[in-house]
Amino acid sequence: MPVGEAGDGQVSIEDRIEELRGHGVELVVGSVTDPAGVTRGKYVPLRRLGDFHRSGMGVSPSWSVFCVDTGIAFTPTIGVAGDLRIRIDPADVRLIDDGLAWAPGNLTEQQGTPAALCARSLLARTEAAAAERGLTVRVGGELECTMLAADGGPATTEPWSPYGIRTSLDRSAFLVDLATTAERAGLSIEQIHTEYGHDQLEVSLAPDTAVATADSVILTRIVLGRTAARHGLRISFSPVPFEGAAGNGAHLHLSLADAEGPLFSGGDGPYGLRAAGKSAIAGVIDALPDLIGVYAGSAVSALRLKPGNWAGATACWGLENREAAVRFIAATPGSPHGANAELKLIDPSANPYLAAAAFLGSALRGIDRSLELPDEVADNPSNVATAPPPLDTEQTAVIDAIEHSATAAELLTPEIVGALVAVRRYEIATFGDLSPAETTAALRLAWSC
Ligand code: GLU
Ligand code: MG
């Protein structure tokens, strides 16, 4: 079995160690991504792979309330006592760099049961809830990011051409290395392009299960970071890396199917939407005001999430509408993976496991309640008199909303909402009085891997 392909569970840990040794692996890192959206990990020598699986590596419960800087937002229930473990599955191990392999970790109790604060387990449970309803889930991810110089400043100062062949070919050695490293890591990259923003890059991933895609988002960030470093660059996953610059999105695409086929095509609703498909999109839109805190809740998120930025700052949907929170993509030959709903307002400060759990969970909630799909907004919402106003995306407002939301507690659990609110309130206290220039500079590398 080539390294980088998912295992079938039949390979012994000893065989897996031998196989990885054959690829030059010396060290294995297992990571978890926390409510602040930061990915943290522990390393073991390859011979301890079995221990990383069976016993896990110890982490303090405070890992879930570590902040975007070195702060810790202790809560009444998350303090200095107790211990959790990060456990990895040897079948998930991927090559990320010379001598180094990575696997996504689950946060568990000592006994091995999922910890209440494990975002990856929450997403797996949400996906299982879809399966209980007879639904198959596919999620695709887009990663926008900004190339930086090694010192964390701008990578280039000359004029930029959005999607320009010059701006991308100037980085051809990096891009070829990126494609090669991603293949080696087993990633299914669909497309790479330089984006609208200065030094901005985008990588999109083929659809997969929700957990596999959230894992791939983290793996892609790691691969981007490691590859960039070989070319004298760094990568920012900040929603807004420089004051006034174009923002970085972390859009997710969702499609659902039951025994009869896709929910977003083949029906008699708009663009072929079936009744359950309409309710799924309605559920996502209905829950948006409560869930912005998980999709785009950081101290710099509101700088991006504004009308005019193609970030989806209005709670509506529309066919191929880049200003709608939900951009609907219909089933056409131009959409090889079929019809899907893209949630544009997610940014890379969001934990991708939690964002996917909220997106999928709110779609299921819409189906369970047979929610009515609002009218399509077919143009820029600011030009449509009947469109809703832009969402209130200011950090205090979105954190207040998620803190008091029954929907957020239902979809994300009170424990995870509590930790998320704690780390984002720390950001309000720490960065709230700083200027956008100071905050964007302070957080430029906060979500990099
Ligand atoms: N950069 C935009 C964002 O912040 C998205 C641009 C696009 O439509 O790809 O979400
Ligand atoms: Mg884009």
From TrEMBL:
Ranges for domain GS catalytic: 119-449
GO biological process, one term: glutamine biosynthetic process
GO molecular-function terms, A-Z: glutamine synthetase activity
Stretches assigned to coiled coil: none
Gene3D superfamilies cross-referenced by the UniProt entry: Glutamine synthetase, N-terminal domain (3.10.20.70), Glutamine synthetase/guanido kinase, catalytic domain (3.30.590.10)
Keywords, sorted A to Z: Ligase
InterPro entries: Gln_synt_N_sf (IPR036651), Gln_synth/guanido_kin_cat_dom (IPR014746), Gln_synth_cat_dom (IPR008146)
Family: Belongs to the glutamine synthetase family.
Name the record gives this protein: Glutamine synthetase GlnA
Organism of origin: Mycolicibacterium arabiense
Name of the coding gene: glnA3
